[in-house]
Predict the 3D structure of the following.
Amino acid sequence: MGFFKKTDEEAEKRENLPELPGMSNLPDLPPLPEMPEENRQSSSPMQKQQFQPLPKPVFPISEKRTMELSSIERPTPSEITPIQRPTYSSNSLKEPVFVKLDKFKDAVKKFEDIKQKVEEVGKSLIKVRELKEREENELRQWEEEIQMIKEKINNIDSSLFSKI
């Protein structure tokens, strides 16, 4: 089968390959540093090898350029438009949606719990309104009674103490 062996046909095919386009535009790479003699002879990957530092990069690194924030023009609030979320209609979803049955049951249960709590809140609001109405009625009655008491006191005051 020869998975790792080169046949004569494969060698000929590789030699006859055309040159890749754009290969002439590539920069020349720097030569590799020389390896010490002791590292050349060791072929065991278990031995520790000392590596040479990498050569300087071939391409020059450009300097960082900074800009002051005050020189940037900021848009006025009238120029800023809010981001709108896309709207999806039920017609745009043409693919079926698959949901696990246990998750669906949990969602239905939570939905029922929410409906029940909303109903309880509605009943509580009705009770609060009824209490408020009763309270206002009682306050109105008290005000009327106080007015009547004031009138009686004024009548007594005028009839008894006016002659003094």
Summary: The mean pLDDT is 76. The two ends are 139 Å apart (CA to CA).
